[in-house]
Write a structure and sequence with these properties.
heterodimer, A: about 400 residues, mainly beta, 4-stranded antiparallel β-sheet, 1 helix, about 5% helix, globular, B: mainly alpha
């Protein structure tokens, strides 16, 4: 009898929630992934894909399902790296690997064809930004930029890192990408602390700082969330990917690819998305033409992540200076998209050419991998990380 | 001038139930709940042999979603989450496989409520708060949790109070910063009402099968 009462009270609780009239004054911000969702999409089942805490061993990853151009091959290069994301080479051939939720930084050492994985840091707050210079590994976690000096000589017993710079502490969209620019400064993103809102001045930008933490400057503004950027091998100018907002429907806005040839440009967030779509709340009266448009629309909700220009000698000559973009794949779309590696070919006076390089990671509505970041090996092959399986693939070419 | 946070609302609890069961997750290497039962013997003194703890302030683990238990073991191992008594030494040597086995074992155990059932008045007081703070958006329409989000229904009251107070004070660990953000707008009174109500909700009886909520 008591059990029936319990169950019926629980049902009453739930029904009450379903039917309770909503009062403006009582409402608090919804979970970050729901913020900006309009009433007509209230019953949408879409939600971000949870990161598995366990990595998938190589034997369970169906790499034969990957599709590549003729002559290219994909295989597992290293596995059992939970949540592997960004990759940075040390001077002595160590590959450092950053993560997000797992809070760890790994060091992968190649011992005669077998990859040995060490964990050099644990318990950090989403340490996804990695860069290496002059014997030191720089790690950008959410609240701080850390420097591990002389790390390659001490992989088994790393010393405590120095704090080089302190970031704003908001977690949302502030897992970072970090890279040294041609000017020797460290570039990183500060993502918007929301899906859609008026960001404070400190957010929704790409910024830079000297390696010692001095000389902070904003570089590009109105950038909702860029977690990948690179400099063109010839022009040395900055190109970056950007994640468009959610909850405006399946096909709008696109994730975008941008060119920032000089500091001080504003790329539209929150007023204008993808260069030509005014935000329903913030876009009134602001013409999209005021802002710097994207170079290319990449597809809606594809989750554009790492971007790198190819400068190696293994791939055929036509790949020189092409930008490769890894796309983790969508959650805010009823039919999944992304889950692939694309190339962008830039030529002066011509429209950018946008083509598929590697796909097959999405089979129908099921995915078996999420391409995340790209790094080049000294021999010109590609390392491709997968933060869902906790693995790094190698894509190589043979005529 | 628009406020920095622009809030939207409108979520139907009942369709959300169906929606959450459609959420997909990776198929991790098959965890072994029987091995997990053996490995959980050393946890039993505090968490109960079947994951139903009886010590006030110590959480029950029975019927806890697999990803939640596993991620929290990682957080304890890495020192990102602390407990009294300190947990880190106890979990330092757990492998990924150990954590997966333990999580699968606990997820399959039926949970028993720890408090007297919430009465209609308490539920009526908690309902608008749970709606306003979007608890069921992540914790599910039954407050049974899903993926990396914990079960709240039938959990120990002292434990729920401690966690919510800690999130508000920013002294409690947080896997992704979400609960710290949520708790900032909770008053002490809100925390009391929500914790009391959830502690007295029926925790559904049956355990969460390892396949629940998976693709």
């Amino acid at each position: 009898m008591r059990r029936i009462v319990l169950v019926s009270l629980t049902v009453a609780f739930l029904t009450g929630i379903a039917l309770a009239p909503l009062t403006w004054a009582q409402q608090q911000p919804p979970p970050a992934w729901q913020q900006g969702r309009p009433p007509e999409l209230a019953t949408s089942p879409l939600a971000p894909h949870a990161t598995p805490p366990t990595p998938k061993p190589a034997k369970d990853i169906p790499v034969d399902k990957a599709k590549l151009p003729p002559g290219f091959k994909l295989e597992v290069w290293a596995d059992m790296l939970p949540n592997a994301r960004t990759m940075a080479w040390g001077d002595k051939g160590t590959l450092f690997v950053g993560t997000r939720a797992a809070g760890a930084v790994y060091a992968v050492v190649d011992k005669g064809g077998k990859r040995e994985v060490k964990t050099i840091a644990r318990g950090l707050t989403q340490p996804s930004g990695l860069a290496f210079r002059d014997n030191a590994l720089y790690v950008a976690e959410i609240p701080r930029l850390l420097k591990f000096e002389n790390i390659e000589a001490n992989l088994d017993n790393p010393a405590a890192p120095k704090v080089v710079y302190e970031y704003p502490k908001e977690a949302h969209h502030n897992w970072r990408y970090l890279a040294f620019g041609p000017d020797g400064k460290l570039y990183f993103n500060m993502g918007a602390p929301c899906n859609i809102c008026m960001p404070p001045e400190t957010h929704a930008n790409i910024s830079r700082v000297n390696a010692d933490g001095t000389g902070f400057e904003y570089f590009a503004r109105g950038v909702r969330n860029s977690v990948g950027f690179d400099w063109h091998p010839v022009s040395k100018e900055l190109y970056f990917t950007n994640h468009g907002r959610d909850w405006m429907g399946d096909d709008v806005p696109n994730d975008t690819f941008h060119h920032a040839p000089r500091p001080g440009l504003h790329f539209g967030f929150p007023y204008c998305h993808q260069g030509d779509v005014a935000d329903p709340d913030f876009g009134k009266g602001n013409l999209c033409s005021v802002f710097a448009p994207p170079l290319l629309k990449l597809g809606p909700h594809v989750a554009a992540m790492g971007v790198r220009f190819y400068t190696g000698s293994m791939f055929p000559a036509e790949y020189q200076n092409k930008a490769f973009i890894a796309q983790k794949g969508s959650w805010n779309r009823t039919q999944k998209t992304g889950f692939r590696v694309m190339t962008v070919t830039l030529a002066p006076g011509k429209e950018p050419k946008y083509e598929v390089f590697a796909d097959g990671f999405l089979q129908g509505e099921q995915f078996w991998a999420r391409p995340t970041y790209i790094q080049w090996m000294p021999d010109g092959s590609m390392l491709l990380s997968d933060d869902y399986n906790g693995a790094i693939y190698r894509i190589s070419y043979r005529r | 001038m628009s406020p920095m946070w622009r809030w939207r609302w409108g979520l139907g609890a009942l369709p959300l139930a169906a929606a959450l069961s459609m959420l997909v997750a990776a198929t991790a290497p098959a965890a072994d709940p029987d091995a997990g039962r053996r490995k959980a013997e050393r946890c039993a003194a505090c968490h109960g042999a079947d994951g139903n703890a009886t010590i006030p302030g110590t959480p029950s683990l029975a019927s806890m979603p697999v990803f939640y238990t596993h991620w929290q073991l990682i957080m304890f191992r890495d020192g990102r989450r602390r407990s009294e008594p300190p947990k880190t030494a106890l979990v330092q040597n757990l492998t990924d496989e150990d954590m997966a086995d333990l999580s699968a074992y606990y997820a399959a155990q039926p949970s028993r409520g720890r408090s007297s059932p919430s009465d209609a008045a308490l539920i009526a007081a908690a309902r608008p708060l749970a709606e306003a703070h979007h608890c069921i958006s992540c914790h599910g329409p039954n407050l049974m949790g899903q993926q990396q989000v914990p079960r709240l229904a039938g959990q120990d009251l002292d434990y729920l109070l401690k966690r919510l107070q800690g999130y508000k004070a920013r002294t409690t660990s947080d896997l992704d910063g979400m609960m710290t953000m949520v708790a900032q707008s909770l008053t002490e009174g809100d925390i009391e009402i929500l914790a009391r109500c959830f502690a007295g909700l029926d925790a559904a009886g049956a355990g969460q099968s390892p396949g629940r909520g998976l693709r």
